[in-house]
Amino acid sequence: MSTLVESEEHKSLREAVSAFARTQPHVLDADDGKRLWQAAAKLGYIGVNLPEAYGGGGAGITELSLVLEELGAAGNPLLMMIVSPAICGTVIARFGTEEQKREWLPPLADGTRLMAFGITEPDAGSNSHRITTTARRDATTGDWILTGRKVFVSGVDIADATLIVGRTEDARTGRLKPCLFIVPRDTPGFGRRPIDMELNAVERQFELTLDDVRLPADALVGDEDAGLLQLFAGLNPERVMTAAFGIGMGRHALGKALAYARERTVWKTPIGAHQAIAHPLAQAHIDLELARLMMQKAAHLYDAGDDVGAGEAANMAKYAAGEACVKAVDQAVHTLGGNGLTREYGLGRLITASRVARIAPVSREMILNYVSHQTLGLPKSY
Fold first, then answer.
1. pTM, whole model, 2 decimals?
2. What angle do CA 83, 231, 166 make, to 5 degrees?
3. Which of 33, 51, 234, 290 gives 20 to 30 Å between its CA and that of 81?
4. CB within 8 Å of 282: residues ≥ 6 apart
């Protein structure tokens, strides 16, 4: 299948999601978000990428990213789509035991349960090799005991469990290796504290503490020795979905600016007739379209099973979408002038929100490092 031109099936899905999204009220709080999530799940949109055998749509990240983009373009992006079906659902579907799949995939697909994802730590930042959350075996019971901290974990308060990235000790080398654990929300020793953010978003951010959290042996997802393979099976879809998040937000802002520029008249013609207004908006549209092409390439490679190729493309897509989103929002606000900062038009809040696409889940500088090393073969500086 070509990644340059959408199939008729994908066009139909895009139109259906767009029509649905436009009928939904603007999400203002957690209750609104829950209603939208459940409504989208009922139509099969939330679990479109999960296996049919477990209640999903049997499609891929390509289709899930399309859903998120259209929700965002309508002004209602669901941040937890990046996390629950894309990261957690994908990891469990690919590496989970049959019991884990039966327990988690159907409710993740139908929207009755959510899962958060915890990887970032206060002292590790973008360096996942410095993760200090450790998991050790209880020699008597076989249980896992997790200790550590996580920060900037989205939606922990509304999630039924969090997929935690910890590190276990390799018995052969003594080195720590990354592993994934399902930690139910009410597990003893699993604490959370909301982070006071200036980001205007329905989904809150949390700091997590794991104080000798005891988990059964079957809380481990996948092979203890698979390490980075399993981790990046979730991180590549995360980057693709963050690109979709940014592209949708950019399209939403651009749409508001275009509607305003067509009608607003200061001299004799609408301001959109003036090239100083029209050209930057046209450039924003071009940048968003280019970012979408790379996002579609990344999703296509991932769904085709090319994890290496998808890694490169997903990082590029996330970079391109983050830049395009910030520029589109900035130009939209500028087009409206003072009105761009009023609550009526709803663009001011996007100034902060658009930065998320640049910062999370990996900064643009770390993506440039990745491309420098992995693609261009330049030496590392760290």
1. 0.94
2. 95
3. 290
4. none
